[in-house]
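queue> pop job 88
queue> type: inverse folding (structure -> sequence)
queue> payload:
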């Protein structure tokens, strides 16, 4: 998987990870992939719902050392 941009949203509380994700994905072309790192436990449901409602594809997510990582492909 090619990562086109990485967003560091660690330490930010809801709704900031989603706000920052929206801003970052707007800078990408359709089909490009954004990798997001966050420590917000609510981000899994928030980013999953946000990606779906925005026509983007959540490729995968994982948790590593209390950091949640998401890969979203711009629709």
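queue> result:
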């Amino acid at each position: 998987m090619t990562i086109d941009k990485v967003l560091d949203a660690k330490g930010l509380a809801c709704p900031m990870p989603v706000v920052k994700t929206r801003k970052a994905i707007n800078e990408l072309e359709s089909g490009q992939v954004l990798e997001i790192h966050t420590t917000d436990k609510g981000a899994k449901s928030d980013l999953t719902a946000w990606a779906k409602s925005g026509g983007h594809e959540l490729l995968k997510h994982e948790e590593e050392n209390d950091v949640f990582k998401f890969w979203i492909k711009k629709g």
